[in-house]
Amino acid sequence: MLVIEGAQYSGSAITARLALDQGREVFAVPGNITSKMSWGPNLLIKQGAKLVQDWNDVVVDLPPAVRRRLIDDGKQRILDLGEEPGDAPSPNGERADLAGPESETSRRILQKLAVDTPLHLDELIETMDRCSTSEVIAALFELEMLGLAKQLPGRQYVRKF
Q1: Which residue from 4, 54, 132, 137 has the highest number of Cβ atoms inside 10 Å of its Cβ?
Q2: How many CB atoms lie within 10 A of CB 152?
Q3: Which domain holds residue 22?
């Protein structure tokens, strides 16, 4: 179970606490300590949930068979698209990615990220009008999984080139 946001007594926090009590895997994305919606994940981390800073924190805990399937699925996507990893950049200087982000929020975030100037998560959330914190974090997760963005220390994000 992955908890991104939730108040102290939210359904997600209660469900995750029960999962912890049963010895199940619980992951939590830390949040701003002044936000009521970050109370749940921050408390879960304090109680033993695994801290998630990027997608790799979840992937490394997957069973080997699941990781292998993900790799095979990724290779198949590459073959289906008829592209090779590491294709040269397009003439306009942008990376020719295997697949673009699917959500509108992810596309908007990708436009805001720069290759050489890190952008803090809180600043990004503030600039994303009409998007909740969880939508922004989910979109960043999608961009990281696609290899389009990278999280730096201190919750800073950059666009990968």
Answers
A1: 4
A2: 12
A3: 2-52
